[in-house]
């Protein structure tokens, strides 16, 4: 299993450009997440998808959109990049076991995408 | 909502010394608690988690953490650190009983182990 994979690893954008960050997991997980990590602020949830076909806003959704393309893939789109979106972006996934308590499930993280917006 | 406070942004320690990384949380409901580790230029890996039962939880790489409900704390400890433990450590909380596991992360503690 590759686990959670993210592309690209690095990206430099100019202000106003758009781009899509890709995330895929091969663990048959139901739930997927996008976080951004900024120095001194830990990880903040941008959007999440509890299950295929659903998406919801997290703490910092402004300036982003997401698509849960299928059970495996969850993409994050920046329509018009701004310098404030310079960050490291992590995708994560977690299972949802039949009869289990979802909130106790471990999240599995991808290696991250480093984005610089000039 | 929940929140997590990691008061120490950086902790320097010598190799083979003990270490404690502090984590306090705030929540109006019962919680599950997690510690993750992030090595340079990598994603986060789960170290350990507290779901229920014994308040002392053992994780990978010799780490352990103790859940203290009265003090709303979940401090991470290791009796003897190694150079390879140099990394950033994140405490996280999720609300028990919710139908979805939204995690809230602390701001992280960088552990720097010196020879």
Helix percent of chain A reads under 10%
Give the SSE string of chain A: EEEEEEEEEEE
Category by helix and strand content of chain B: mainly beta
Percentage beta strand of chain A: over 45%
Gross morphology of chain A is globular
Q: What is the overall silhouette of chain B?
A: globular
Note the total helix count of chain B.
0
The total count of helices of chain A amounts to: 0
Largest interface (CB < 8 Å) = A-B, 28 and 29 residues
User: Helix and strand string of chain B, N-terminal first?
Assistant: EEEEEEEEEEEE
End-to-end CA span of chain B: 41 Å
Q: Structural class, from helix and strand content of chain A?
A: mainly beta
Mean pLDDT of chain B: 91
What summary fits the major beta sheet of chain A?
7 strands, mixed
The quaternary organization reads as heterodimer
What's this entry about, in short?
The complex is a heterodimer of chains A (118) and B (115). Chain A has 118 residues and is an all-beta fold.
Describe this structure as you would to a colleague.
The complex is a heterodimer of chains A (118) and B (115). Chain A has no helices and eleven strands. Chain A is an all-beta fold and 118 residues long. Chain A is globular. The N and C termini of chain A lie far apart (36 Å). The model of chain A has no long low-confidence stretch (mean pLDDT 90). The chains are: A mainly beta (118), B mainly beta (115). At the A-B interface, strand 4, strand 5, strand 9 and strand 10 of A face strand 5, strand 6 and strand 10 of B.
List keywords for this structure.
heterodimer, A: 118 residues, mainly beta, seven-stranded mixed beta sheet, four-stranded antiparallel beta sheet, 11 strands, globular, B: 115 residues, six-stranded mixed beta sheet
């Amino acid at each position: 299993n590759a686990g959670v994979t993210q592309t690209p690893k690095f990206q430099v954008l100019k202000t106003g450009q758009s781009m899509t960050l890709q995330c895929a997991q091969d663990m048959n997980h139901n739930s997927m997440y996008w976080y951004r990590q900024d120095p001194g602020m830990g990880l903040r949830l941008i959007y999440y998808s509890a299950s295929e076909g659903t998406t919801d806003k997290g703490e910092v959704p402004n300036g982003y959109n997401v698509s849960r393309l299928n059970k495996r893939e969850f993409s994050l789109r920046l329509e018009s990049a701004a310098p404030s979106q310079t960050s490291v972006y992590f995708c994560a996934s977690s299972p949802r076991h039949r009869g289990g308590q979802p909130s106790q499930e471990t999240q599995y993280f991808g290696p991250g995408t480093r984005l610089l917006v000039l | 909502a929940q929140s997590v406070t990691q008061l120490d942004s950086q902790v320097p320690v010598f190799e083979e010394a003990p270490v404690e990384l502090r984590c306090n949380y705030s929540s109006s409901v019962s919680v599950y608690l997690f510690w993750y580790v992030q090595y340079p230029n990598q994603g986060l890996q789960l170290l350990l988690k507290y779901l229920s039962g014994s308040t002392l939880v053992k994780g990978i790489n010799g780490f352990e953490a103790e859940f203290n409900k009265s003090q709303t704390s979940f401090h991470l400890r290791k009796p003897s650190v190694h150079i390879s433990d140099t990394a950033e450590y994140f405490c996280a909380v999720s609300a028990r009983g919710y139908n979805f596991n939204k995690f809230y992360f602390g701001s992280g503690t960088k552990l720097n182990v010196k020879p």
